[in-house]
Structures are given as C-alpha cells and as structure tokens.
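Give me the fold.
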Amino acid sequence: MPSIPHDLAAFLVEAKRRTYAGLDDDATVVTPVLAGSKQLEHRAAPYAYRDIYFGMGFFVGQETVSRADRVIWSMSYSGGACADITDRDTFLAIYKFLRQALLGVSTGEPYRGPRLFEQAGLIYRNEVEGSLDRFHGVERIERRDGALLYELQYSGGLLR
C-alpha cells in the first residue's frame, strides 16, 4: 500500500474550498484542457489540484493532485440533480446548497462534504468508506420530507 503524504489531506481541503465549493465556476480556467469542460485549478507547492467536469444537470468529472508533475491522487465522480428537476432556479438552489455543504470538507475525510449538513429545509448526507489511499462514497441532497433532489457517486485514491 502506498504511503499517504502527511500534508495531502490538508492540501485537498484547501484546494476544494478555493475552487468549486468556495468560488463556483468563477474558479474555472479560461482555456480548459478538454473542450467543453469546466476546469478548476489550485496550486500550493509542492501540489497542484485540477478538477475537470462536463455537464450540469447530470455531470461527470475527475479531480487530480500532482506533485513534481506526476499525478499521485485522483477521484472520479458522477451524478447530479434528479432527472425530473428541470427548473433552472431549482437547479441553482440545489447547487448553491451543495457548495455550502462542500465547504464543510475536513482533513479526516477530504473527498466531498461532511457526513451531514442541514440548512433551509435541505439535508446533505455523505456516506463514505475507505481512507485517502482508496475510498468510495455517495452523497445525496433531499428535502426534509425525504424527497431526493440530487445524488452523486465518487471513488478514488492514491495512484501506484
């Protein structure tokens, strides 16, 4: 099993808070590597973080962390708002709430948001198994009445 760098979790938390969770698409680079994608980046030596994704209602993406120009960690994800949600204002409200939840990312589990976050009648739940070297999880957003609004699955770990 590869050794987890002692400062990787702290870097991931910083990178996530300084890209999508904290800045939304304002963190997007002007010319993404892949045409049609959103690409968000953060650098703090010795690491570089990149998040590339496609789509909005349903989206697919990948986060990578590089050190010395070599990718050492990655997480893939896919999901989004439930298919029956088509109203733009509802989309925006769900993703605004999601970004608030994602700001709660911690060094103990630096993948997505906290295990539980509640605000304004919405509930974010994150179930994850594993550790930074190899993990998988699912996050969901639902209304207090239990209606599912959003779901995302993710997995990743240290590359070897």
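The chain has one domain: 8-158.
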